[in-house]
Fold this protein.
Amino acid sequence: GCKKFDSRLSTDPNNPATLSSVQLIANAEYFLPDISSSPNGVHYAQYLSLTAFTDNSRFVPTNFNFYTWYSGPLKNLEEAIAVAKNLSDGPLQNQRAVAKILKAYYMWYVTDRWGDLPYTDALKGAANYTPKYDKQQEIYNNLFALLDEANSEIILTNGNIKNDIIYNGDIAKWKKLGNTIHLLMALRLSKIDPTKGQAEFNKAITNGLMTANNDNLAYPHLAEQAHENYWYNSFTRLGRNWYALSNTLVNYMKPLNDPRLPVYGNPNSTGAYNGLEFGKASPTTADINASSLLGSSLRLQNSTVQLVTYAQQLFALAEGAKLNWIAGGDAQAQIHYNNAITESIRQWTGSTATAAAFLAQPNVAYDAANALSKIGHQRWVHLFLHGYEGWSEWRRTGFPVLTLPTGINGGVMPR
């Protein structure tokens, strides 16, 4: 008979008794697609229209809160920074650096949506149930400092960490991501604090940016129900074929024969690409049949969600050159702009075969007199489905011009 009890038999590996930094990081990563995959965000940049239950595209729901972001990924990342002690999971400073980069990214997203928020007193649990609100400017300054810390802490030699579902622990890619986030955050200051923005922008460049699409922050959904793409769940599992390309988007892309359009949407019943009127309260059957639903390849069970991308970085560099934040003026801005569009087409279609012809069109080609408009429009197209990011860039730049009928939100786009 059994004469010796093995205490390990009573240990549940799915409920560890002690906190693991890399497990907390992995859990925080699990929330990443929610930044983009949203039944609301896609309407704030007018990417998608609704064929039914149209309140979201008419901005009727207004009661949103940030509690889940604090109690979920942000709290996990705060703990990960504090408890990184296991060297077998990778260098401790790299574990902390990855947690800091993700914390900065989540907090940037949250403050860009909600403005002034708790930061310096936040995430302390029972020690402070009523943290004070910090001004958004102070939050930005703290996040720049946090990203500086992460960049300086990272060890590249033998520096990979475990449990990372984004880059498989590749710390060099995390370093690039942190600096690219830093760059994009700096550009947000272009109109409110350009001096600070330029300094942070150039610091990010010096520290090292993304160099290819395989550096993108992209969430890898799986072909299983527990980790499937939001749009697969909506269209296929729930049968909610409610999301069509907006007329705002299609009316811009279609005249340019944009090679990304057949990826963004499916052809309608006649084989054409058409957008559904944005914000229409009650689309008819004819309206719906004439419209292009969200593209099939973007709503597979394992479709990847793109969050921070190389092309997005290149658009930022193009704008930075145009603003004279970096050297080269229009000549350098044009190079970055052309590369941004080329890499965007590569990201979305898997090929650059159509890029040169697309860029040669007068309404696409770089134009010094209208550079900021063209950069803004093409960045908006590139950020498809990443609605809150497209909305944040629209609020900063005014591109593209997004309008509403007077019957929706008083005819004024939410800001």
Q: What stands out?
A: The CA atoms of residues 234 and 240 lie 5 Å apart. The chain is about 45% helix and 5% strand. Strands lie at 48-50, 117-118, 133-134, 217-219, 243-245, 305-308. The radius of gyration is 22 Å.
